[in-house]
Request: fold
Amino acid sequence: MRRVVAAVLAVGALVLAGCSSSKPSSSSKGSELNDRTGTSAGGFDGLGLNPAQPRPSFTLTDTTGKPFAFAQRTAGHPTLLYFGYTQCPDVCPETMADIGLALKAIPAAIQKKTYVVFVSTDVKHDTGPVIAQWLTNFAPNSSATFVGLRGTQAQIDAAQTAAHITVAEDGGQTHSALVLLFGADDYARVAYTQSTTEQQQMTHDLPLVAG
Amino acid sequence: MRRGGIVVGVALAAIGAAGMIRASIPQSIATTGSTGADPIVVSGAYVRPPAPPTQLAAAYFTVYNTTGVDDRLTSVVTGAGATAVLHTLIGGVMTAVSGGVTIPAHGSLVLSTGSGHVMISDLFGPLKPGQSVNIDLTFQNAGQITVTAPVIALGATAPTGAATTGATK
Reply:
């Protein structure tokens, strides 16, 4: 209960992780992405990611207890991916509220095909039912698909690593504040941190990646 | 390790969310932040309600020290819940502050999403947008200041003056 919220503004860290994980020798995308620098910087209101990050592969458990393979299940869909925990008093609910409201502001057709995937970093306390109820706060009347995921500590750590997100600490309470937006092309070129304009940034950017 | 914090609210006789109405301060202090004579000015106060099943609320505001001498926020008590703990970002980690926090001379303490908040728990009752919560702030030099903070829905625009996210001094 007396939780400490955890907002690591991991922009710098994320960039680092992105850089160190790209293997120039094995990735043909390196040069391709470099060529897109102008595009990625120009179009988005959020934080541009360069190089772009491919949709990560990890399988966790959804709130009904079924396995959810992130990359496969969300492939081709605009997808907002966020790691946080429900007992977080400030950044997490604020971020999720921004996502929920941004979705309402975009065209219905895009809203309908968008996935919002929340991964709990609090392995100990966030059960399926807790996450499911918590998500309903942010998805009233939404036609987007909200997915809540949980897993073992090792699985959650691996998922964050796969997503190039700083791995959460302190029982999940110190976690990255980044929301990654993957587009229909299965790459994330933009991310968000909680701010007073986060909602507007997402509203602006979502249609750009919807395909 | 980060338990505790400076402020353990006293359960002021269960007065509910909008309780603790006491001799209220001029509204201008809570909203404009520019009343010249006050040593400490608090602006942009608001409270975010909990997202069930979580039962934690967060209060945000900015404290300006208009004097030439450092002051110290030593205690926070709110009408919304029995426990209130100040958290600020220390070394990139949101940390419960113990022993109070210094507001430098001519400086400020900005509590905004991601930079700090007062975490309110053991709520006296539901918190709904449209209600308001009284927050008592006690300062070493300036004494006690009560601010009235509206409850603003998650995601809804915060009152002017609360939007600052930059450095605090």
The beta strands of chain B are 40-48, 57-65, 71-78, 81-90, 93-96, 101-103, 108-111, 116-123, 132-139, 143-150. The longest helix of chain B spans residues 27-31. Chain B touches chain A at residues 2-5, 48, 50-54, 56-58, 83, 85, 87, 89, 92-96, 113-114, 117, 119-121, 153-155, 157-158, 163, 165 (CB under 8 Å).
